[in-house]
Amino acid sequence: MKMLVLGAGLQGSACAYDLLQHADVTEVRLADKSVNRLPEFLTPYLGGKLKPMTLDVTDRAATLKAMRGATAVMSAVPYYFNMPMTEAAIASGAHFCDLGGNTEIVFQQRELTDRAASCGLTVIPDCGLAPGMVNILAQLGISRCDSVSAVKIFVGGLPQKPEPPLNYQVVYSLEGVLDYYTTLSWVIRDGKRHQVKALSERESISFDGVGELEAFHTAGGLSTIGFRYEGQIPTMEYKTLRYPGHAHIMEAIRDLGLLDLGAIDVKGSKVVPRDVAIACMAPHLNKPDGRDLVAMRVIVTGVKDGKPVTHTFELVDRFDEKTHITSMERTTGFSLAITGLMQAQGRIKPAGVHTSDECMPGEAYVAELAKRGINIVQSVS
């Protein structure tokens, strides 16, 4: 199998690394505008199965050429490229999956389902950590109940050694983080979809080995699963996890206008507040030597055989000291690789466009995570 990974950043590089561990993968092409600064964990594979290639994904002809011959394409480029990359993959005859990140674009991708199905191809948006892993686990819990009253999802990427004032380090795009902090979040209340403010309804939640964290609403995590179960499940929500106090500070920064996207006049120059905020915060939050962790809990409450039941899925994953692959890369990039591999192996049915929670065999997916040392702890009460 020949695999193509779009984007040689954190998640794309981790995805490529995972693919390279499989004997039935004969070639991994890793494409980006620049492939001159690949992480050290990929260095041993250069000159072998790993084929870095320079590619500007806005060049449709070059993108189509890069995709031809690939069994599956995994996209780790920014979400706004997902639609044209989907179209190109179908035209090239390759399966396609991406990290999602924008629910409106996912709905646009779904409109291509007949085109993909006619080619015998699968297209799967939302294949990272959130959306992605948490949605698959939520669906697994739902499938184990006769009826469901609530689905609650908690997940966060955190530093192992938090430093004030935000007790946070960048584990993926800071622009993406701030977007989630400023966009309304979809929830299901009383069976109907509602929007709530990001950073709101904070609550305390504890994890063994990590301690007390705070959970609050952010956008994007539910993706289309909230639309699927509107009118069927009374309560469904997604919350981000951070160390206590983080949300209060970020809420103040946001409410003061420092994360606004509209340009303002500053001493005669037009300035975008969020651009300034990112420029100021990034040097303090980018910690190349910092060790991260991912904490995740998915709780599905319902009824089985007439009795109340709660299915809980929990994960605490940490930076890999052997490979120096971060936990966020492992849980996000490896999840993308698992999806692409299962597509290429014909393990995803039926053909067409389906989100990961709609088509991924949940138990098989959990087993694949375990092979990579990402161990989901499951409990029933």
Short description:
This protein is α/β, with parallel strands linked by helices. The chain is built from 13 helices and 18 strands. The chain has 2 domains: 2-128 and 328-375, NAD(P)-binding Rossmann-like Domain (Rossmann fold); 133-327, Dihydrodipicolinate Reductase, domain 2, CATH 3.30.360.10.
List the helices and strands and how they pair.
Elements: E1 2-6, H1 10-20, E2 27-32, E3 50-54, H2 60-67, E4 72-75, H3 82-92, E5 95-98, H4 103-110, H5 113-118, E6 122-124, H6 133-143, E7 147-159, H7 174-182, E8 185-189, E9 192-196, E10 203-207, E11 211-217, H8 225-228, E12 235-242, H9 246-255, E13 264-266, E14 269-271, H10 273-285, E15 292-304, E16 307-318, H11 327-344, E17 352-353, H12 356-359, H13 362-371, E18 377-380
Parallel strand pairs: 1-2, 1-4, 2-3, 4-5, 5-6, 6-17, 7-12
Antiparallel strand pairs: 7-15, 8-9, 10-11, 11-12, 13-14, 15-16, 16-18
Task: List descriptors.
globular, 18 strands, alpha/beta, 381 residues
As residue ranges, the low-confidence spans are none
**Assigned CATH architecture of the largest domain:** 2-Layer Sandwich
The overall number of domains is 2
| CATH topology name of the largest domain | Dihydrodipicolinate Reductase, domain 2
Helix tally? Answer: 13
CATH-assigned homologous superfamily of the largest domain:
Dihydrodipicolinate Reductase, domain 2
Approximately how much helix is present in the residues? Answer: 25-40%
Briefly note the structural class of the backbone.
Answer: alpha/beta
- Radius of gyration, rounded? 20 Å
The amount of beta strand, in percent, is 25-35%
The top-level CATH class of the largest domain is Alpha Beta
Bulk shape: globular
**Averaged pLDDT:** 96
Largest sheet: 7 strands, parallel
Separation, N- and C-terminal Cα atoms: 42 Å
Give me the count of strands. Answer: 18
Strand order of the largest sheet: 3-2-1-4-5-6-17
